[in-house]
Amino acid sequence: MSTPETNPAPSPSNTDHVRDIAEVAAVEIITTAAVHLMSAAAVKCGLAEGSDAEELKDLDEARKLITALAGLITAAAPEVGSQHAAPLRDGLRTLQLAFREASTIQDAPGKGPGEKLTGPVN
Q1: Is residue 120 in some structural domain?
Q2: Where is this region: Disordered (predicted)?
């Protein structure tokens, strides 16, 4: 006889969550992940609203988020189609430019966050 500790039965909430995620199209999941990365990168670039925007700025963290976003968009673009990829690319470019503007030490062309995946951003 199994006990709950050795063979836990899925709770209704876990089962519902898995069923819900299975019903979501891949393009929606990819887009949602990209939007989360964009939002976090914007905050880390100092673009948050409010008086504490400068306190929240962390360009090292922004670089990581923008590079991850560039990787996601570059890999997913052929799969999601241009109607979904184009706005994501625009948002990425905007973040790359915001990062460049916020940096006191400029990266060489092609060396900014995500630029090895997207090419230089001017």
Answers
A1: no
A2: 103-122
Under 8 Å between Cβ of 110 and 100: no
Taking the C-alpha atoms of residue 44 and residue 62, their distance in angstroms, rounded to an integer, is 5
What's the alpha-carbon Rg for the chain, to the nearest Å?
19
The DSSP code for 8 is P
In a domain, 114, yes or no: no
Domain extent, residue 31, equals: 19-104
- Indicate the length of the chain as a whole number: 122
Kindly state whether residue 58 falls inside one of the protein's structural domains.
yes
Per-residue pLDDT of the chain (122 residues), as tens digits, is 545 556 565 555 667 767 688 899 999 999 999 999 999 999 999 999 989 989 999 999 999 999 999 999 999 999 999 999 999 999 999 999 999 999 999 999 999 999 999 999 98
57 occurs within a structural domain = yes
